[in-house]
Structures are given as C-alpha cells and as structure tokens.
C-alpha cells in the first residue's frame, strides 16, 4: 500500500494555528494546485480525530464518497450524510497492513499528529507540501521530533501566481 501526504503549511512550517484555525490558508484552497488530481489517485484517507472534527465544521464534506479512517480510541461525532467514516486505532504499520489487506492501494494521510506518527513508522512514501506565503509565528507544526533523519528525494517544485510554492518529495524505503 502506498501512503502519501498532501498538505498546506505557512512558510514557517505550521499546518494550523494553535487553536486549530486554518484562516491563514487561501479561501477554498486557493488557485488549482494539484489537489483534485491527487485526490483522483487516492482510494481512502487516514486522518486523526482532531482533523476529523475540524473537517466536520466545513460547509461541505470534502472527501465525497472516499472512505475515511479516523484514528481515535474514543467514539466519533456523527459523520455527515453520505460520508463513509470508520474509526480505527493502533500502530501505523498495523493500520497500513489492515488497509492494504482490505484492498486500499493508495491512502492519503492527513493531520499533524497522524502524519508525524506515520512518518516516524516509515509508512509514508510521498510528501507534497504547499507553502502559503504567510508567517503565523506559532501553531501546530507539520513535523515533530524524529528518532533519526528521514532522507527525502526531491521530485519537483512548482510555483503558482498567488505565491503558493509546492514541493514534492519521495521518501525512499
């Protein structure tokens, strides 16, 4: 199973304000920058409970009919009509194995803690990071402490008229 990250950050590396706020991101995601094309390759999502609760507050469920696996040991808030949501918990390697056994070929991993856990466990193969031209000073960082260096292979960097800069990396196994 392949696991990828597609995420926006401030230039100083924060994916959200400390409160979880995303108001520094461009409205509606900004100009097209490959998200729809990326989502077309994804079979399912793995997100953390905090990310799930943030997404529930959006005007519309952003994942259509893609299965969303929410990592939590606690019961989840009711998903919107039509959303396919399942709670899971456990080690990232075990979760990846379970999803692969269920026929999931490509999973989109989202949420700060979830991304950090999956990266530390060596489950992530691809990172697509879009930097928004803003400094917010503090917040929820994309990356956290690591037990060892994680070498990345640069694939491409793209810039957009609005100032978005997107870099894509492979995480060699």
What's the order of the H and E elements? EEHEHEEHEHEEEE
Strands, total number = 10
Looking at the structure, what is the overall shape?
Answer: globular
CATH class reads: Alpha Beta
Summed up, the helix count is: 4
Low-confidence runs (pLDDT<50, min 5 residues)? none
Could you name the CATH topology?
Answer: Dihydrofolate Reductase, subunit A
Per-chain topology:
Blueprint: E1 2-10, E2 14-16, H1 35-39, E3 44-48, H2 49-56, E4 67-71, E5 84-88, H3 92-101, E6 106-110, H4 112-120, E7 126-132, E8 140-141, E9 153-159, E10 165-170
Parallel strand pairs: 1-6, 1-7, 3-4, 3-6, 4-5
Antiparallel strand pairs: 2-8, 7-10, 9-10
Question: What's this, in brief?
Answer:
The chain has 173 residues and is of the alpha/beta class. The protein has helices spanning 35-39, 49-56, 92-101, 112-120, and strands at 2-10, 14-16, 44-48, 67-71, 84-88, 106-110, 126-132, 140-141, 153-159, 165-170.
Descriptive account of the structure:
- The protein contains four helices and ten strands.
- Helix 2 links the parallel strand 3 and strand 4.
- It has a single domain, classed as Dihydrofolate Reductase, subunit A (3-Layer(aba) Sandwich), CATH 3.40.430.10.
- 18% of the residues lie in helices and 31% in strands.
């Amino acid at each position: 199973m392949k696991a990828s990250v597609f995420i926006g950050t401030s230039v100083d590396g924060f994916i959200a304000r400390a409160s979880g706020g995303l108001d520094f991101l461009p409205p509606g995601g900004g100009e097209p920058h490959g998200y729809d094309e990326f989502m077309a390759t994804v079979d399912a999502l793995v997100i953390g409970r905090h990310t799930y609760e943030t997404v529930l507050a959006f005007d519309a469920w952003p994942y259509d009919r893609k299965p969303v696996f929410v990592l939590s040991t606690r019961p989840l808030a009711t998903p919107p009509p039509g959303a396919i949501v399942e709670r899971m918990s456990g080690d990232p390697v075990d979760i990846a194995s379970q999803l692969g056994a269920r026929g999931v070929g490509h999973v989109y991993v989202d949420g700060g803690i979830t991304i950090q856990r999956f990266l530390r466990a060596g489950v992530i193969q691809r990172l697509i990071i879009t930097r928004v031209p803003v400094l917010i000073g503090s917040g929820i960082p994309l990356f956290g402490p690591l037990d060892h260096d994680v070498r990345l292979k640069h694939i491409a960097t793209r810039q957009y008229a609005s100032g978005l800069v997107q870099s894509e990396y492979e995480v060699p196994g």
